[in-house]
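Submission checklist for the structure archive. All mandatory fields must be present; incomplete records are returned to the submitter.

[x] Identifier: L-seryl-tRNA(Sec) selenium transferase
[x] Organism: Streptomyces chromofuscus
[x] Residue count: 451
[x] Sequence attached
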Amino acid sequence: MVVTRTGSAGPRRGDDTTDRRRRIPRTDALLREARLAEAADRLGPATVKAAVRQAQEQARQGFIAPEDVADTAVALLPRTTGGLRSVINATGVVLHTNLGRASLSTAARRAVQEAAGPTDVELDLRTGVRARRGRTALAALRDRVPSAAAAHVVNNGAAALVLVATALAAGKDIVISRGEMVEIGDGFRLPDLLVSTGARLREVGTTNRTTVADYAAAIGPETGFVLKVHPSNFRITGFTRAADAGELTGLGVPVVVDIGSGLLGPHPLLPDEPDAETQLRAGASLVTASGDKLLGGPQCGLLLGEEELMRAVSRHPLARALRVDKLTLAALEATLTGPETPTAAALAAEPAVLLARAERLAAALGADGIDVRAVECAATVGGGGAPGVTLPSAALALPERYAAALRTGPVPVVGRLEAGRCLLDLRAVPPEDDERLAEAVRSVPDPAAGR
């Protein structure tokens, strides 16, 4: 703490904290520095000023020396004019909603770059006439889900449900179990979404038990369809009963199943997670899902199922407002036809391999004098998928102060706090990012060492 005397000229001489703060370069002086001035022309003055202020704050707190403010500000600048920053996901949540859920594969990223210029998104190059938008991506989607006679893509999972409800049930009833009237992240409630389309909700059964007879008793001339929703972010256990899609197919109305997570086929590690192929084979008329969850692709909403219903949905006027752009189509097709996605790799990572990586990194960082150790831990799927499922994992355990410093460093690393330590879980960190992760840890100043 800086101590001053009443009437004195200011802080005591020799006060290291005050001296350090006085030596921090002024903002206007830093903005005239050649590298930062050039960056201001490239990225905009506001972006550079934000980096300068962040570096100055690090100097005030003693994390860096005043003479390092300019270098730190340059390091904090984003590589592009976009406001989003690339981060390393060390949270242990494979599909972290706040971090954009699925990471695109290398093939998908290349496809996006290729599609950034003029493309044949709605043109048949052989005939020179207009063609169906996204036709190759839709064909790839049907190839992955053989039981789907038709497919359609919109801009997210909620949009898929909105389009189906509007096209098939506006002014009609949607029959749904009380136990599936869910709320997902950020206060988003499914009933509110469905009612906004002009449909009426007909709730049946109870929170924990809904039978086929409950659905049958509610169906009448005003029924648009029966809706089954996977309660993806919670589980009801104990005295429960839920009718599956196969049991509802004989009720005389379409059965729409929202599987949420985007799993196209059964997954050995997630046996309780519903998938599109199984639901359609069981008799579902339409299946809706998200593309940026377990599928591991870009944000989009997938619709799969019967051709006649899909025609009614895809030709509804609202479909135009919810359509995806060419970049999403390119990324989706590359995800469907390309090599293993980062999501699939993260789910399949062997715990022993993760622990070996953590031990190797801990040994290297420990040799640099950093207080770190490798620990076993548990990761989760995230993104509203596989509630209650934990994945054995391994992490670097660091002092708690590393959490904030790593989030705000030149290469942002987002971990989690657990038992007073900052854990950097490797489950969702690709092996090729291990050295970047290590360098980010090394870059965190050590106040005890005076740097």
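[x] Structure attached
Curator remark: The chain is about 35% helix and 20% strand. The first strand starts at residue 88 and ends at 89.
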